[in-house]
Amino acid sequence: MLFKYLILFLISFTSFAEGLTLVAVGEAELMAEKLVVREPYIDGSFSTKEVAAMNEMAALMRNDFSFYKKNFSVQIVGKNPLKSFESLNFSDLKSKAVQYLLRIQFSKSGQNVKFDFEAWDTLKGEKLVSDSGVMEVNNARAIGHKLADMTYRKITGKASIFNSKITFVSDVYSKKSSKDKTTELFIMDFDGRNVRKLTSHNSVVLSPAFSHDGQKILYSLIDTKVSKTRNVSLRMIDLQTGDNTVISNKSGINSGAVFMPDGNSIALTLSHVGNAEIFIMDLNTKALTRVTRHYAPDVDPSISVDGSLMTFLSGRPGKPMIYTMDPRGEEKDVKRISYVGRFNATPRFSPDGKEIAFASWLDERFDIFRINSDGTGLSRLTKDFGSNEDPTYSNDGQFIAFSSQRVISSRSAVQNIYIMDREGEIIGQITDNFGNCITPRWSKY
Q1: Domain 33-156 listed as CATH 3.40.190.10
Q2: Burial of 33 (0-12, 13-18, 19+ CB in 10 A)
């Protein structure tokens, strides 16, 4: 029973949903600056796939900026002039108070497809960004995200989410005839496109976590094919090489792992000591340093950017609640910070370490909350929008991805991944028709 309880403690709780209402919380809406991404100028004869990739690149950049809808209002203003790419007339855009123009031309360069990109401040008549290179059908999306990010950085002076990735778990390939559901690990662009399967265990994958450089992912595996005891092992996949290695396979639970800021060690939950406790492991030597020591289970750590604070889920009050402590010592400065709901789950730091997002069971469902890391400033981010779990901040801290469950019928429900801004305004659903999609984790770059 203890093992089953701990597994349930670690895994996102199954929940049900009803209703669909958009709820915004917090700051007043700012005036968004108008931005136009022109249809591509196509100079020459190209294959159907190449033309489709060109049009997708322009559409992708529009979609990218639409996520920052409090900053940018993406406009559709007329069609491209019939003149060449060199001709540029801002008068029509100025009359409509369009602040920014993004445009791209495709032309032949031998056997290659060449692109030329420009971003302009139309009110100042100033070129902000220019770039050129070779496009291939299979890298059009990556180029589009890169160009959009270059423009966003020039305008705002900050990094965007456009190059970021989200890893998640899905049961889409689980056999319907099987009594035991299987899940695998996947990765996708932040907008839900370009989905790739990362594992083929035909077992149960849990709790993914990116390294700080986005090149590695930790995850846990319940290998149902090997042992009836269903030991939970910890593994790591290298996205560059494809190497998949076992990091920890001690008796019981090896789960809930996250990278420490140095990138050379991880915080993880182990139960080989008889109770679920949090340790720090050196990835090179596998040496363990114990962080928590309590008769109640302590699981699911998340570490602040400077490594000075850890948030985690603890059963110390008799039910799972959110705590913080200094991970640089055993049981150092332990503090309970959440008191909302019957129980809590999956606390995650914002990139700057100032906030923690978590799920809480309240009103017979899970909802996402945000709280300052010192325990002040509690905000409810979702309400009457299904049952919502597994929050994860974007790399810039402006958005939160989460899984949300919708009831389909009295006997079935489906979970998908959504994105909202940090104030709770829903941006949109990014997975669909891909089984139950859970535990999203956003890359840190």
Answers
A1: no
A2: middle
